[in-house]
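Chain X:
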Amino acid sequence: MSSLQKTLFVLLVIAFFITGAQAQSKKGAQNSAFSKFLGGFSLHASTGFGATFYNHEINGPGILQKTDGNVYIFNNFYTVGNSIDTGYSGWVNNAQASSNIPVDDQDFLLGTDSVSVKYQGVGGSIPISLTLSYTYDRYRFGGGITYEQSFSAKFYPNVEANNLQAFRPDYVTASIIRYYAYLGGEVYRSKRHTIAVDAMVGTFKLGKKKFNPDQVKTKLFVNIGVSFERSLSEYFKVFIRPSAEFKSYELAVPGVGYTINHAMPALYVNIGAVIRMPNFKKCPVSQCHAQINHRHGRKVYRSKMHPFWKWQDPDYGQNYPELIKYKGKNKKKKNPY
């Protein structure tokens, strides 16, 4: 998806909510099937922090560990004298060739056709997500987009720790964009709290500035989480969502004829807010103090007595949860009135 398409997606979501609100106003807030349908849509926005557990395995090519910290893979032990004809570094994101690499006595050579080497590292990330969902009964479905700024990891080998050194890729941060279908279900619901188990399934793109698109091939990803939600009003919630994600990509090292599978499982904690499309027009009667959904004539309206971030009990309203006779000095009076 191009940057233009991403922008159009965000504008489409905003336009949908604006158009829906205008449609509610024009319909006079009748409790119609269309207004009920609009009331099922919600917009989720969140950010947070993630930890990605990178790992990949070299099994087949040779590895040359230089004393200066550089590390190369090459066609297994095809050396010319005291040098390697062609070696490749940067196999995490952009494999680059170097020619006639000298091999000194202090350097370390390893053939991974007999001993595979697994490199592992942990990197952080900051995701920003926008999801449009529809709720039917206790079930949710929709789609969304996530932009993530990820931080590179330092990769440590699992064998030959005395000879092989840890290395970092040639980038500090890189972008990841995910597009996904959203599915979920509410497993617990009360007046103010909801617990939902949900999943995101889709594709992701690694930033072209740091990852070579001619070498990298991504796969589908799956994110499974639990959303703990608290209602601040009938149409506004805040939530925290811990989740686990499973994704990977392949990088083809061109001159070696070898493809490396890079696994990227991750753990996330997201915090955010959910705004639901109102299914009733705000009450037009200036002197009306009703705090819950109520009727005027044959039409149903929502209360205008509280802001969208303030909690109102859906049964009786809660703009003034404590009567004046129970406040301050009145607490000690037998007859505060």
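Chain Y:
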Amino acid sequence: MQRLKRTSIEILICLIVFMFLVCNSSWGLESVNLQGESSVPSIKHVKVYFEKNRFGGWPANHGIWIWGNEILVGFSAGDYKDLGQDRHNIDREKPESHLFARSIDGGETWQIEDSSKDGVLLPEGKMLHGTELPGVVKPVWRDCPGGIDFKHSGFAMTLRMTDSDKGPSRFYYSYDRGKHWEGPFRLPDMGTSGVAARTDMIVVNSHECLFFLTAAKADGQEGRPFCARTVDGGKTFEFLSWIGQEPEGYAIMPSSVRLSKNELFSVIRCSGKDHSRLAAYRSKDNGLHWDALQDPVADTGEGNPPSLIKLNDGRLCLTYGVRSHPYRMCAKLSSEHGDTWGEEIVLRDDGSSRDIGYPRSVQRPDGKVVTIYYFSDAKTGAERYIAATIWDPNSFKEISTQEDSNE
């Protein structure tokens, strides 16, 4: 009887230990596993564009737009070619296309659109990693007559460059959510050594808009960010200010938001001697002057651009890729207008090479964030593809890093 009692107790203890281990294992999976499959209900990964033997890349070079649950994002596509783990594995001798992906259900499913069929938004210039499209007549760039309505309900605008150092650059706009585009219109250099434009803008009113661009440095190399403005719907552009001092390396690809009536906030991709970082700047006079702040991200490996949005609850949300092992997509939150930032949120860390990132993010009406980027992972294969991570910023505890920054 005594032996039976001991056996029952031992069985009960084993069951308790087993249940503890099972539960603890489940709790321990609160981050992305090696296959990129998230066990957290607040994180979901979706393939936006994937084709066998094809390359998809660089959404940050094109832009993203949202109208309710309808999302449009641009990206580059070409033939896949193995050029080595640390290279952009796109075939340099095959045509590169500039495509769009559209979702009407908040990023859950996607359809691919090719504007080159209408003879617009054609890839051109030294910026390409592939070749220009064969047999396509490129439209002549022209001066914009002005009168663009930046507040139009279906408005979208994209700015493109032909070279990452000096440009030149052009822009297009749409009134029907990117189904048809007007352009290309010539973007002036505004007294700089040349403008290499990507899409980063803040609409002020129907005919006034702020643009955050990159110009060549004094030596003609990339790059130095600046703020510009149009007040006549794109007919003329005015240089307002440099954002920060001219860097030794490069400072490029700003991503900017409005904090208040007069206050702007911008995050910049900056190069360093052995790694790159994301730097932050604030303007309290609508872009006339800028002050440097604490770096939100001290190290992004070999470099990756930021995507900054202001959430519906007023917090700042920064998403970015890290091109050092583990290759990952991350986010940070700030409830202090960028004065302090929470700890790094790892959206996924299953990247198989440094050739990832270039995100763009938007917030859906239900509060979830859709972050779109290019990626490669062992489960999918060698091809780079466009992915979307849908995640809930309210599911992550924000822990201030201010104490660390003052050490």
